[in-house]
């Protein structure tokens, strides 16, 4: 995977309905070259699927990051699926050393309690670390019945063509295009690629860092990570409760992974760095998908 592939993935995660032409202009290559790259990303499983979800503010939810330390007695794939059986968990992964990471969506303190009680219910889990994640605000807009009719056709295939949406929704292509632009511009619903970073032979890993918040704020650390590890860095979760940043990165070898960690440890404002290497990962529907499905059912 090169810089262009990563750029394409980032754009598809932001909005998987972006056209090949728009991507071609952005990356200064032909539309056919973009189409081939996207197909390869799909065929190799790096793009595992696409999702349609309400925005965070539309659903009234926030994000929780969790890290579990276990005794290692459980089957990793089975335990990841068991974690995903909780309706608030949207992603879970196993890591080296009997560790597991998860991302959950929650609406209120009761949801937080329910998630915690669920995680504490496992005898194999001997420690739990959770952090509410800082996220930028998104938008709220009123969705009309026509908006919902268009969204309903995209639940199974968010990249469906305008013509096919028009056929399934019994609307004109012109009306569909206008409604879709309103939905996307209003950021009421996210149409996103779901990415599996370990399928192309790279090594995904979590890097947990503390930083000296008296000397520098989280934006400076985030900028340094993005500039220093432009190709390797994929996601960063910033705790709202403590000066802790957890980043998801990839390396092409253990040597490269070690170099990333060593360089991070040399940063004068990052006193501690710990790493877990990913083994198995799975996505799950979560609250935003469920709430959107309920909204669609109530509109009929």
Q: Can you give a write-up of this model?
A:
The structure is a single chain. The chain is of the alpha+beta class and 300 residues long. 42% of the residues lie in helices and 27% in strands. A hairpin with a 3-residue loop joins strand 3 and strand 4. Helix 2 (20-27) packs across helix 3 (31-43), helix 7 packs across helix 12 (286-299) and helix 8 packs across helix 9. It is globular.
Could you outline the blueprint of secondary structure elements for this entry?
Elements: H1 3-14, H2 20-27, H3 31-43, E1 47-54, H4 56-59, E2 62-70, H5 76-84, E3 89-95, E4 99-106, H6 109-120, E5 125-132, H7 145-153, H8 162-169, H9 173-186, E6 189-195, E7 203-210, H10 218-228, E8 233-238, E9 244-251, H11 254-265, E10 272-283, H12 286-299
Antiparallel strand pairs: 1-6, 2-4, 2-5, 3-4, 3-10, 7-9, 7-10, 8-9
Helix pairs in contact: 2-3, 7-9, 7-12, 8-9
CATH topology of the largest domain: Alpha-Beta Plaits
Portion in strands: 25-35%
Number of strands: 10
Mean pLDDT score: 93
Class derived from helix and strand content: alpha+beta
Brief description of this entry?
The chain is α+β, with helices and mostly antiparallel strands and 300 residues long.
């Amino acid at each position: 995977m090169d810089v262009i592939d990563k750029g394409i993935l980032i754009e598809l995660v932001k909005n998987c309905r972006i056209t090949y032409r728009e991507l071609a202009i952005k990356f200064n290559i032909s539309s056919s070259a973009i189409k081939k790259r996207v197909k390869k990303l799909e065929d190799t499983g790096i793009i595992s699927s696409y999702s349609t979800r309400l925005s965070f503010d539309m659903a009234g939810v926030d994000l929780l990051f969790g890290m579990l330390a276990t005794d290692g007695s459980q089957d990793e794939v089975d335990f990841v699926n068991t974690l995903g059986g909780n309706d608030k968990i949207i992603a879970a992964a196993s890591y080296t050393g009997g560790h597991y990471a998860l991302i959950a969506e929650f609406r209120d303190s009761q949801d937080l309690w329910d998630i915690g009680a669920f995680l504490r219910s496992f005898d194999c889990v001997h420690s739990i670390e959770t952090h509410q994640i800082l996220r930028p605000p998104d938008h709220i807009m009123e969705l009309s019945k026509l908006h919902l009719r268009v969204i309903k056709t995209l639940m199974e295939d968010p990249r469906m063509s305008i013509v096919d949406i028009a056929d399934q929704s019994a609307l004109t292509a012109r009306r569909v295009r206008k409604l879709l632009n309103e939905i996307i511009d209003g950021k009421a619903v996210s149409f996103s690629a779901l990415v599996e970073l370990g399928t192309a032979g790279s090594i995904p890993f979590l890097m947990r860092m503390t930083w000296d918040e008296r000397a520098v704020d989280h934006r400076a650390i985030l900028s340094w990570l993005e500039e220093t590890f432009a190709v390797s860095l994929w996601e960063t979760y910033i705790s709202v409760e403590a000066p802790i940043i957890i980043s998801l990165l990839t390396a092409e070898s253990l040597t490269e992974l070690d170099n990333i960690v060593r360089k991070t440890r040399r940063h004068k404002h990052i006193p501690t760095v710990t790493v877990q290497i990913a083994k198995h990962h799975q996505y799950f529907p979560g609250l935003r998908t469920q709430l959107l499905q309920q909204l669609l059912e109530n509109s009929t």
